[in-house]
């Protein structure tokens, strides 16, 4: 097993609420009767406990952007972990896959986010791309495989002598992450998730030195390995299949906690009588658990990342009444034809809601009412009513000049 301080990421699980219920999820989404949401003070304590940890601190779920305080969490990461503002995805992205691969897979980053790129990601697009230098986006509409985890080694007849070596060489603990949940810190992220699912005793106290523990200190948490099949030869299943591979002992435990997913029959029973480990190839690492190429983990033209609506304002005049009623993007243009052309172009391009886009050749501007620049101004009673007002409230680095002739939208 790995020392915690040697892990390249330590996760903070802020919620197990999710928009998906993938097969064989490491957080067992769909099996909880009610999701948890980490408290803000506990989150800051978790981040602060890793002050001297030299690698990435990740924010994870479930889908982390579903947390009602996600914006505040991201702000704290930006100010206390990243300690700088990232400028990801400020230029329009006609090819988001290429932009993603080029910008947010920096292995030296101190902050990480794992997300499905759902509609809440769009809502928090600006703060996410200021706060997190490394992002893993996986909408689970792809061909990634998830290994069956809800499997007991005793169900499969794995004896104690063999088990010790298998457990200590588990690819998941040796390549993935320790974690902090609302119930403490854990040597393995799946152990933390099992503790949440089965209402276990909790993990270690989140102190500034918890992550300096070594494998000999994991003994009080190794009982969770008995309920996990990661180090065994178990079935792989497409993540979007939605069913879990479960052995009898785990099925009984899930029935005891009244798992909604089990009640719906969304599982496949792994029968010990017919099980043959040779039927399944052992997982060899994280890149085997999901598609190795990060850019293939999400739909190339993910609709959730695209603008939701455009309101058109002509002649560069805004009114307070109109602005407060707008939900998404505003195009300011000199003519209706010009504005409609821009609407058609940008409706298929990923643009950052935090930026003011200037299309000089068209004499047009695009901005979003959810941007921090606009919301702060409106909260202070300074609702912008002209283009000059907009130029005054946006910081210079968020005013982006766009040459629309250079934008090429890929064919869907």
Stretches with pLDDT under 50, minimum 5 residues: 286-292
Query: What proportion of the residues form beta strands (DSSP E)?
Result: 5-15%
Kindly name the structural category. alpha/beta
Distance between the termini: 45 Å
Oligomer description: single chain
Provide the gyration radius in Å.
24 Å
Write down how many β-strands occur, each being a DSSP E stretch of 2 or more residues: 15
- Provide mean pLDDT, rounded: 92
Give helix and strand order, one letter per element, not per position.
EHEHHEHHEEHHEEHEEHHEHEHEHEEHHE
Major β-sheet profile: 6 strands, mixed
The amount of helix comes to 25-40%
Gross morphology:
elongated
Tell me the strand order in the biggest sheet.
4-3-2-1-6-7
Number of helices: 15
């Amino acid at each position: 097993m790995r020392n915690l301080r040697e892990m390249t990421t330590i996760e903070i699980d802020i919620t197990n609420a999710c928009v998906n219920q993938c097969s064989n999820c490491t957080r067992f989404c769909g099996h909880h009767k009610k999701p948890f949401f980490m408290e803000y003070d506990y989150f800051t304590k978790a981040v602060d406990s890793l002050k001297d940890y030299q690698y990435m601190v990740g924010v994870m779920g479930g889908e982390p952007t579903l947390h009602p305080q996600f914006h505040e969490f991201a702000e704290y990461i930006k100010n206390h972990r990243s300690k700088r503002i990232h400028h990801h995805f400020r230029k329009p992205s006609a090819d988001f896959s290429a932009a993603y691969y080029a910008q947010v897979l920096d292995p030296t980053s101190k902050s990480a986010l794992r997300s499905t790129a759902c509609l809440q990601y769009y809502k928090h697009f600006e703060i996410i791309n200021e706060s997190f230098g490394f992002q893993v986006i996986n909408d689970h509409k792809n061909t990634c495989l998830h290994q069956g985890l809800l499997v007991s080694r005793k169900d499969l007849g794995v004896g104690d002598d063999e088990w010790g070596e298998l457990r200590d060489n588990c690819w998941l603990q040796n390549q993935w992450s320790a974690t902090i949940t609302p119930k403490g810190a854990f040597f393995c992220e799946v152990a933390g998730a099992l503790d949440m699912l089965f209402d276990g005793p909790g993990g270690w106290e989140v102190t500034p030195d918890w992550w300096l523990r070594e494998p000999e200190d994991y003994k009080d948490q190794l009982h969770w390995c008995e309920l996990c099949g990661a180090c065994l030869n178990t079935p792989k299943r497409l993540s979007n299949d939605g069913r879990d591979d479960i052995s009898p002992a785990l099925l009984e435990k899930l029935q005891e906690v009244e798992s909604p997913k089990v009640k719906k029959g969304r599982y496949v029973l792994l029968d010990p009588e017919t099980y043959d480990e040779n039927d399944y190839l052992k997982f060899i690492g994280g890149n085997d658990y999901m598609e190795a190429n990060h850019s293939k983990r999400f739909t190339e033209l993910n609709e959730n990342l695209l603008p939701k609506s455009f309101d058109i304002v002509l002649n560069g005049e805004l009114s307070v009444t109109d602005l407060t009623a707008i939900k998404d993007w505003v195009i300011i243009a000199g003519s209706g034809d010009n504005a409609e052309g821009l609407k058609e172009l940008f409706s298929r391009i990923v643009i950052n809601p935090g930026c003011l886009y200037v299309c000089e050749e068209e004499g047009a501007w695009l901005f979003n009412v959810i941007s921090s620049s606009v919301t702060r101004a409106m909260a202070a009673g300074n609702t912008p009513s002209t283009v000059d007002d907009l130029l005054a409230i946006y910081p210079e680095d968020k005013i982006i000049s766009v040459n629309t002739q250079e934008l090429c939208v890929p064919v869907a």
